[in-house]
Amino acid sequence: MISSLLILVGLVSVLSEPASSCGEKEFRSKDGFCCPMCNQGLHVSRDCTEDLGTKCQPCPEGTFTDKPNGLKSCSSCTLCTGHGLFTRHNCTATSDTVCWVVDGYFCRAPEISGCSLAEKHSQCKSGQKTKEPGSSTADTVCEDCPPGSFSVDGLNCTRWTECSESERRERDGSSVSDVVCSSASRNHVASCCSFGLFLLSLIIATFIKVFLFTQN
């Protein structure tokens, strides 16, 4: 009775032990064999058997494997088709395509050796200046113009114009426009001309009245 119980416990113990795992460069086939992996650039076309080793096949054009594997098919090569991306390195049987950003864009989703998503550099607004221009890895950094200066194109801030003693300020400056100055002497001349025209018209009117009176 006791011996039978010991045998049953031993059997359960053996059955409960996990199956041994395959080696580092092996994969388990559907039949349970530990098969040698295929090298990079290849994929499995037939699992190993008790008598035969793994049969490997080269990756078709447009696909790749970049490490030893037990895959039945290779991975598709990445296409650099997004806006602002270009192909820096073409796909090979052993490595994926490497994409990078064109000028005027920066990488929003960097990867180990490339980029999968690009975005156009921001344009600073009027009233701002470009503190740091955009690069391939960072967007443009903008900064508001300090008081007393303005910017129209969002590139650089310019100090307001200082009106001279002979000028007067027609319009105040803002963050997007300069001060407008006008010549005080020009205004004086314009006033004198207006007054002169008024006197001339008055003299002519008086002369006409006198002429008409003498005719009567």
Automatic annotation (TrEMBL):
Boundaries of every TNFR-Cys domain copy: 58-99
Alphabetical UniProt keywords: Disulfide bond, Membrane, Signal, Transmembrane, Transmembrane helix
A single GO cellular-component term on record: external side of plasma membrane
Pfam families named among the record's database cross-references: TNFR_c6
Swiss-Prot/TrEMBL GO biological process terms: defense response to Gram-negative bacterium; defense response to Gram-positive bacterium; negative regulation of alpha-beta T cell proliferation; positive regulation of cytokine production involved in immune response; positive regulation of T cell migration
Record InterPro entries: TNFR/NGFR_Cys_rich_reg (IPR001368)
Protein name (database record): TNFR-Cys domain-containing protein
Organism for this UniProt entry: Oryzias melastigma (Marine medaka)
